[in-house]
Amino acid sequence: MSFHLYNLHFSPTPATLAIGLIVLVAVGVLCVLSWKRSPHPRRTAALESLRFFCALLVVLLLWKPEWLTVLHPETKPRIAILWDASRSMQTLDAEMPDILSPQRGVVSRAEWTKAARDSPLWDALEEGGKNELVDRSFGEPPTDPAAAAISGTDLSTPIEDLLENETNLRAAVLLSDGDYNTGQPPVVAAQKMLQRGVPLFTIPVGSKKRLPDLDMLAVTAPAYGIVGENVQIPFTIRSSLDREVRTIVRLRDDAGREKTKEIVLPPGEPTYDAILWRIEKEGSATLELSVPVADGERIEANNSKKFTLAGRPESIKVLVIDTLPRWEYRYLRNALSRDPGVELSCLLFHPQLGKGAGPDYIQDFPSKPEELSKYDVIFIGDVGVAPDQLTKEQCELLRGLVENQASGIVFMPGPQGNQFSLLDTALGDLIPVVYDETTKGGLNDPVASPLALTGEGRSSLLTMLADSEEANPDVWRSLPGFHWHAPVLKSKGGTEVLAVHANRRGRFGPIPLIVTKSAGNGKVLFMGIDSAWRWRRGVEDKYHYRFWGQVARWMSYQRNMAAGQRVRLYFTPERPIPGDTVTFNANAFDKNGAPLQEGNVYVDAIAPDGTKERVVLEKNDTAWGAYSGRMRISLPGEWNLKASIDEAGAEAVETKLLAQGVELEQTGQPARPDVLQEMARIARGRMISPEQLPDLIKEITTLPEPRPIENRISLWSHWATVAVLVLLLAIFWTGRKLNGAF
Question: If DSSP codes are grouped into helix, strand and coil, which group holds residue 93?
Answer without folding.
Answer: strand
